[in-house]
């Protein structure tokens, strides 16, 4: 059978209330046991004191008649003896004080010895009963000797009081009712406090549940106000962080879709217009027209390939094949291929001097060449002529420091942190009309750098443009993205 599931507030309330009720019941039971045990000790002590007083009273009377004839078969003498003991015919002595913690003492109108006359039996020296009621056999008894000049003339036996009677019983009942009432009151109070505390604990959890439910349903949840215990408050802060991250991811996803659609629409629109013109006979499929169509197809292919590279890197990690090779030779060959393009654009490409000795590196050399190509393409595309693009590299013992910087125009400070975001392009000074890139080149650079365990940063160049710095370990182990 499956047990019903309770809300956490109900579970906390039941747990705390159950623990407190058990504690109250346990303390109440121990208090009742202590009350009855202590009260029995008090009654026993009182009986012993009363028995001692009775022995002394009988001894005073036995001095005049050691044979105890004055008591033998004389009920009136026994009653007078008990009256004198209890103070009914003489000065009434005060009762012994009760033990501490028992509250009020028995009412003063009740007999001091309770039912003591019914529990006392007096025997002579030969064991014959002189006075008192015959007691049931098998009960424990307190026995005292009556001495006259050192000789035992009689013995007194007293049976224990089986149950409090009279004022004693009233006193014990009042104490018992008080303890039971206090226990019930504390149990009810603890249940109310437990319910209130559980409600305070569960409110933050209910807010968390509502927020996560809205997130799971695809809705944007409001930020939570951290409250409750330290762990719950930290959990709420984590949920807020997750909510903000999901919101940023959702915004980025929508921006990606919009930007990709825009980037794909431009070459597709050109292709569609050119093809329609050829079909309508407005243009002839001359080699120049076909070359233009080919350029648009190549641009579209590069864009799709770049998008594929980034998407695969996000899902599976960038696929790299690490092999040993000469790092300075690769960098120099990859840079020299852009000298003609730079001169055609009216730009000067500054390269470092060749290194006399090869330096071994363990890289995916195809990816590193792609990295440097993207950096140079970005600088050549966005630098005004006449201008300068400068490439520098420096090898330390374990790493390569590569810098590509260009002249004006520069990048606004607010845009520096977004340069490596996919499809981001500076919209003002570094925009060159139809000659701009897709906005994926620097994103691919960052992906390649991270796959090699390095880092890349962007800053302002002293030449007036942009400065990109790449740090790559020479012995890359292949980092998972």
The largest pleated sheet is described as: 5 strands, mixed
Q: Give me the count of strands.
A: 11
| CATH topology (fold) name of the largest domain | Heat Shock Protein 90
Q: Which value, in Å, is the CA radius of gyration?
A: 53 Å
Q: Strand content of the residues, in percent?
A: 5-15%
Shape annotation? rod-shaped
* Chain-averaged pLDDT: 79
Question: What is the CATH H-level superfamily of the largest domain?
Answer: Histidine kinase-like ATPase, C-terminal domain
Class of the largest domain, according to the CATH hierarchy? Alpha Beta
Distance from first to last alpha carbon: 48 Å
Query: Low-confidence spans: pLDDT under 50, at least 5 residues?
Result: 90-113, 428-434
Structural class: alpha+beta
In the sheet with the most strands, the strands line up as 6-8-9-11-10
CATH architectural type of the largest domain: 2-Layer Sandwich
Q: Into how many domains do the coordinates divide?
A: 3
Count of discrete alpha- or pi-helical segments spanning 4 or more residues:
10
- The helix-strand sequence is HHHEEEEHHHEHHEEHEEHEE
Percent helix, as a range, is: 40-55%
Walk me through what this model shows.
The chain is an alpha+beta fold and 481 residues long. It has three domains: 8-120 and 162-171, no CATH class; 230-314, Orthogonal Bundle (Helix Hairpins); 321-473, 2-Layer Sandwich (Heat Shock Protein 90). 51% of the residues lie in helices and 15% in strands. The protein contains ten helices and eleven strands. It has helices spanning 8-62, 75-86, 116-119, 167-216, 230-280, 287-316, 327-336, 339-344, 365-382, 441-451, and strands spanning 120-124, 129-132, 142-148, 151-158, 323-326, 347-350, 360-363, 387-395, 399-407, 455-460, 464-473. The strands form three sheets. A five-stranded mixed sheet has the order 6-8-9-11-10. It has a four-stranded antiparallel sheet with strand order 2-1-4-3. A hairpin with a 4-residue loop joins strand 1 and strand 2 (129-132). The longest helix is centred in the N-terminal third of the chain and has 55 residues, at 8-62. It starts with 7 loop residues before the first helix and ends in an 8-residue tail after the last strand.
